[in-house]
């Protein structure tokens, strides 16, 4: 039984699509946590798991997924689905969640204290750098395999 588990774990952690998505997300989160730690004086480990901010881990991981699927399957149905998912996730990060952050700022002023998380979405600049990270990680992973 343990051999079967190790077999499937090995298949997952050696899968180039999984590797690009994971390392794109991880890289973006480390950079974001470092920025928040050094420039906003926040705890690195708490910042690592926060949403929003520079760079967008959503954009990084979704671009990595889409490009990895394109490289491995070509212009397939899975690639088209990954592209649609990427557009939905990035649109949500830029528009919906960014607007939630703006609403939170207004509500926090009216509530006379910061009670709601304000940095939950992304600007286009943050998404741009997430896309750059995603593309870079895909290039590195596929160059190494």
Write a concise synopsis of the structure shown.
With 145 residues, this protein is mostly helical.
Describe this structure as you would to a colleague:
The chain has 145 residues and is an all-alpha fold. The chain has one domain.
Main pleated-sheet profile: none
Q: What is the tally of helical segments?
A: 6
The N- and C-terminal alpha carbons lie at a distance of: 29 Å
How many β strands by DSSP? 0
Low-pLDDT runs of 5+ residues are none
Overall mean pLDDT? 84
What are the salient characteristics of this protein?
single chain; 145 residues; mainly alpha
Topology:
Elements lengths: L1 H12 L2 H24 L4 H5 L8 H17 L3 H34 L13 H21 L1
Helix pairs in contact: 2-4, 2-6, 4-5, 4-6
């Amino acid at each position: 039984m343990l051999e079967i588990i190790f077999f499937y774990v090995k298949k997952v952690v050696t899968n180039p699509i999984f590797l690009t998505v994971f390392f794109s997300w991880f890289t973006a989160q480390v950079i974001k946590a470092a920025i928040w730690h050094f420039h906003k004086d926040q705890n690195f480990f708490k910042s690592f798991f926060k949403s929003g901010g520079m760079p967008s881990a959503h954009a990084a991981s979704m671009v990595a997924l889409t490009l990895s699927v394109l490289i491995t399957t070509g212009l397939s149905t899975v690639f088209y689905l990954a592209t649609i998912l990427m557009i939905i996730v990035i649109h949500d990060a830029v528009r919906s969640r960014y607007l939630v952050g703006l609403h939170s700022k207004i509500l926090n002023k009216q509530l006379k204290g910061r009670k709601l998380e304000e940095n939950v979405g992304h600007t286009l600049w943050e998404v741009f750098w997430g896309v750059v990270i995603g593309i870079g990680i895909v290039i590195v992973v596929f160059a190494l395999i």
